[in-house]
Amino acid sequence: MKLENVDLKQPFVETEYIKNIAKRAMLYLNTGYAIHFKGPSGTGKTSLAMYIAKRMDKPYQIIFGNEEFGRTDLIGGNFGVTKKIVQDNYVHSVMKHQIDYNQKWIDGRLLNACKTGATLIYDEFTRSRAEANNVLLSILEEGVVEVPLNREKTRFVKVHPDFRIIFTSNPEEYSGIYKAQDALKSRMITIDLDFPDVDTELEIVLKNTEVDKRTAQYIVDVVRNFRESSSSKFHPTIRSSIMIANIMKMNKINLSKDKELEIKIFEDILLSESSNSQVSLEEKKKAKVLLEQITYN
Ligand SMILES: Nc1ncnc2c1ncn2[C@@H]1O[C@H](COP(=O)(O)OP(=O)(O)OP(=O)(O)O)[C@@H](O)[C@H]1O
Q1: pLDDT in tens for each of the 297 residues of the chain?
Q2: In angstroms, what is the span from residue 81 Cα to ligand 1's centroid?
Q3: Which residues, in sequence order, are bridge partners of residue 155?
């Protein structure tokens, strides 16, 4: 299981658009419901989830959905088989291998958050299989965690009243995404996120890079024009704008000084996002022509 302590040192942009979403999310969480940010890659779901988790004023953790996840990764399990080499008391040249099966139960992040009343972000939860995520049903519905003791026995742990969970997910048509079970979806409030408004996108680029405002505005305009007017296969994310801005700033590339290089940078970044792996060569060529038109305007 990949887990990280959340790093909230990253600058966070709070425009009216974001404030509105955050306000609703906090209302639902404060009432005791689980929330779910769903939307295309790079629309700011994880950043928003982290920001909200921090505002809950409770300890918070993040786990990342993964198709290899099992119940043990979320709840915990018995770990620790130790192997000892022991010297025989009588015949010193004889060594005995002793395997110690004294296993110890270790709580998984989900169980730990349920016990301690922490806020848990389950990022991209639909990358995990339904068999792993099923454990969430009783947590969200009955407020209990089913913890298997052995093959026959299960114990039930009561969920702390302060426990909260924030889910994020990408649309189902993305590769590596499982359909979330209806039973699970009906136990959370889903807020659909799309690309933010132009002011928010511009602020995000400015906060994440040290590029000047004129350059940031130009990059955001080109990226948004391309996103909105190209075939549906190309949806460059805010990440692309941040990358282009960083490249321009760090390499002291001035706008319009070397138009050819500028267009190539846009092409390389905007056409290489992972969601474009299915795009044919022909479509890429058309996209390049379009990009050239946008950057010359
Ligand atoms: N409100 C914000 N303030 C500052 N930076 C932001 C904000 N929203 C998004 N970003 C930046 O935009 C980029 C994409 O955001 P993020 O990773 O949160 O999107 P996502 O929707 O979770 O993407 P994915 O689905 O691919 O994981 C990141 O570099 C992030 O730092």
Answers
A1: 333 444 555 689 999 999 999 999 999 999 999 999 999 988 999 999 999 999 998 999 999 999 998 888 899 887 776 666 666 666 666 666 666 667 788 899 999 999 999 999 999 999 999 989 999 999 999 999 998 877 788 889 999 999 999 999 998 777 778 888 888 999 999 999 999 999 999 999 999 998 999 999 999 999 998 888 755 577 889 999 999 999 999 999 887 788 889 889 998 998 876 555 566 777 778 778 788 777 776
A2: 41
A3: 147
Residue 8's SS3 state is coil
Question: Which atom of ligand 1 is found nearest the CA of 37?
Answer: 21
- Test site for ligand 1: of 47, 169, 223, most ligand atoms within 8 A of the Cβ: 47
φ/ψ (deg, to 5) at 166: -120, 120
Residue 96 near residue 86, CB atoms below 8 Å: yes
For ligand 1, atom 11, the nearest C-alpha belongs to 44
CA of 97 to the centre of ligand 1 (A): 52
Rg, Å, the chain Cα set:
25
